[in-house]
Write a structure and sequence with these properties.
The chain is mostly beta strands and about 280 residues long. The chain contains one helix and 16 strands. The longest helix is centred in the first third of the chain and has 21 residues, at about 15-35. The protein is globular.
Length: about 280
């Protein structure tokens, strides 16, 4: 007699197979449930404090890590406009010790022949070039070192502007080889509007410059292009601005168009962001 193909006789028993499978799955789940939990990583802590400003004085200190060498750090502070001196220190051991960069003047510490002493800003691009901006109030003394602070090339008129303040750097790649450096700062009291107090000096304007100029890679970080005014020159929406950053990812997100909507750019670009406060708030 011909056997029914759905019969449970023979070597293969569907019910037994299902029961065996369920038992295996249950055993595996039990093993996972009772397995020892993975150890949690140790909480992050701060290391022992290190004095980095040896041989100088100052305030508003900034710290920058070299993207090409995580053990190479730079820090800088202003001295004073009257002293015409600011300082740059470096660490070659990941922040364990600091000393003046090689190009610092002996017993004084000044690193460039340009004017300075006001606010300072340092930055390091993806290739390890060191950039330095020193405030003179009339302008920025901007400089670049291609040998980690041993020598500097500088300019007393880094931006095509006057009466500037509160500088910050942001980088996109290597400005000497197709990349960009963005300098953000305030044009100080450029507008007569009284913002927040009848005794203030006038309205600040948030601006941004880019370097290098077209075809000017050799002067990257030394000479900057024209100012792009970010805040309203006739309003009071700029107090003291903060740092700027370049997005690592290119997108087509454009400027706000109202109602929570944004324009769509024809091609993806990397955006530059800057934070600033409102002088009336």
């Amino acid at each position: 007699m011909k056997k029914n193909p759905s019969s449970q006789s023979g070597l293969f028993n569907p019910r037994a197979f299902v029961a065996f499978t369920l038992c295996c799955v249950g055993a595996m789940l039990a093993m996972v449930s009772f397995a020892a939990p993975k150890p949690r990583p140790a909480p992050l802590t701060f290391g022992h404090p290190i004095i980095s400003g040896i041989g100088g004085v100052g305030f508003e200190q900034g710290l920058r890590v070299d993207p090409s060498n995580a053990n190479r750090l730079y820090t800088s502070v202003p001295g004073s406009l009257s002293s015409d001196t600011s300082w740059i220190w470096h660490s070659l051991d990941g922040g364990k010790t600091f000393k003046w960069v090689v190009g610092a003047t002996a017993l004084e510490g000044k690193v460039t022949t340009c004017f300075g002493g006001g606010d300072t800003e340092t930055g390091v691009d993806s290739a390890g070039h060191l950039y330095f901006a020193d405030l003179t109030l009339a302008n920025f003394s901007t400089s670049r070192s291609d040998d980690h602070g041993a020598t500097f090339t500088c300019s007393n008129t880094g931006v095509p502007d006057a009466v500037v303040d509160r500088q910050w750097y942001a980088f996109d790649g290597d400005p000497t080889n197709g990349g960009s450096i963005y300098l953000t700062n305030d044009e100080f009291a450029h507008d007569p509007a009284m913002c927040g107090s009848p005794t203030n000096f006038g309205q600040n304007v948030l601006v941004m410059y880019r370097s290098p100029l077209p075809g000017g890679g050799a002067a990257a970080g030394i000479q900057f292009g024209p100012a792009n005014q970010v805040s309203n020159p006739l309003g009071c929406d700029e107090g003291i601005m903060g740092n700027n950053e370049v997005s690592p990812v290119a997108t087509t997100l454009g400027q706000p168009t109202g109602g929570g909507q944004f324009a769509v750019l024809p091609t993806p670009v990397k955006h530059v962001f800057v934070i600033h406060d409102d002088a009336l708030l």
